[in-house]
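Here is one chain, start to finish.
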Amino acid sequence: MIMHASRLPEYRAPFGAQCTGSEVTLRLEADKDSTEIVLCYSYGLYNFSYHEEPMKLESSSNDVNTYVVSLELPAEAGLLFYWFKTTVTRDYALRLLPDCGDLFWCKKNSDKVILFYVNEGNTQNGSGRISFEPPKIGVEENKYPYAWQITVYDKSFKTADFMKGAVMYQVFPDRFARDKNFSFDKMCNASDRTERVYHEDWYEDVDIYGKPETGYLACDFFGGSLYGIAERMDYIKSLGVNILYLNPIFEARSSHRYDTADYLNVDPILGGNDAFDVLISEAKKRDIRVVLDGVFSHTGADSKYFNKFDRYEGVGAFKSYITGDESKYRSWYSFIDTDDGSVAYESWWGFPDLPNVNENDLSYRRFIFGEGGVVDTWINRGASGLRLDVSDELPDSFIRQMREAVLKYSNNDGVVIGEVWEDASNKCSYGSYRDFMLGRTHDSVMGYTFRDGILSFLTHKMSAKDFNAYMEGYRERYPAEAYYSMMNLISSHDVPRAITVLAGDDDPGSRELQKDMYLNDAQMELGIKLMRMAYAFQIGYIGNPCVYYGDEALLEGYRDPFNRRTYPWDKLKKNQEEQVKFVQNVSKLREENPCLKTGFYRTIFADDDTIVFERFLDADSRDYFGRKIGEGCKRVVLLVNNNNSKTVRYSTTNDEVELVDATDKMTNEYVVSAGANAKGIIDVAPLSFVFVCYE
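Its structure:
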């Protein structure tokens, strides 16, 4: 027997990611047949060094020895991977691994066998397994067998307090709300771009064809504006929102605006810079921060910088390359002379409308980060930070400079959120591990991993046990400053609407088929239950519950552009109105109970279709970050029952959980209060949830 479990304090302490220069103690239990117990570790980021350290015998029982080693972690942020090595007799190895006899007989050098104890993967407690091979941690290697990971982040890393545990609301500006002064003619005349398609009817479906001469270009507009968002700020606040995240608002050709044309000005069709000032003013009145979307890996070809179509005054990079005329933007882009004499250029994923920018160009960096530049301009206009589009396609040094600039211009009160779809703590791209969770680039990242987990659990693709292990893995690998600021989303502008994934038919593939696919009555009924459980989990769990506009009103839709339909303000059905009220009410729980924002976390039960966890303050009413909390409950337990037919029975006295047959005593309330000495049983209905709030 060999045992180490990274999520149990008796084997690794402290838990999780650690700051530079701190100390971690590792323990391993092994049968007395195991000898020469060695800790193997490798650390670094862009380059790694390998080391071995013998472990000291700490104690022994009848058959088991306990070995220990304490490591002072590196002074420079990076990743530390570790595993264990032991020497055993051939006979003992065969007892441990009886099915591997042939492998042993192939090793003719001695009667001794070297075995490795490696990370098993996402188990409940982070336990390991025996392996003939050491882990693979190289950038280009298939990471199997797995090593344990300690994320070593910069000891100065701190996210802005407003970010931790905040409720976020994401808005796609063109599709949220027209303002009271909207004019269809004015919208049509806001630009001379003839490829644009304008919708006079707010409730018309999104365009998937474009104009005959151009085809689909994502250039259809409904006339939503920043004034419209400002006018709906009371509604946004009623959802418990603390942070408003806006998809791109800078001038661009398309309606998604990921093809930036002018970084320093709001698109006129959204109301221009004056509308932004009004929005910021209305947000501040309600204590709502605003985070903007920044696209810095590429611009639009139709922009003042590239200016391929001569729409803007001055010489852009494209004309400069062709004619030799001077342009201050020329060095931002990379051009290629083709064999046929035409001009080509590097572009984002090969789309010619999106020429790549050289982020290492110093004049580009000065434009983005310097005084009077992009970051300075928008932070001083009132933004509280930036979400970076395709973060993993930006150089680490660029993102480090981005965070430095945001902190500088915001007096250390701004944030940088990255678009990273995978595990940001050990993300590999462009030939190296990335500096994403080490406290130097991002304050946090978008929670697509959260989305994958919760939707998989609710659609029974992942058991509660596996879901809990999956989430505990991220909690273990991410620094707490970042994890408590995670943008925990279930929908976004880049993925299908959550209710469509949870209860709808499989994606048929083509836009023509997606266009007419909606949930039937039975699917909608199921979808509402699952959406409520998903939102309850968002509200209860660590991080920032993020609502994509319209999710609270049961908007449906497959991939882009159907996930970007207009908000149905004047056409809400009864079930949509009820869902909005539900979101408003559940959101109050987080505002009234700060332990749900920054409290400690513990899983109480995770098995089959049931997960139960608690958020709590310590005995001195302090949160995870040591701050005294004087409001709300000291402890809140969330019970999520994803079983179709069984009731979850919970004892408020001793946290015991069991599945029983449905009863007529199931609670119809989603919040139950329990006194400090409460004694009672709570039955949670199938496909439902309950918050238990302890005084």
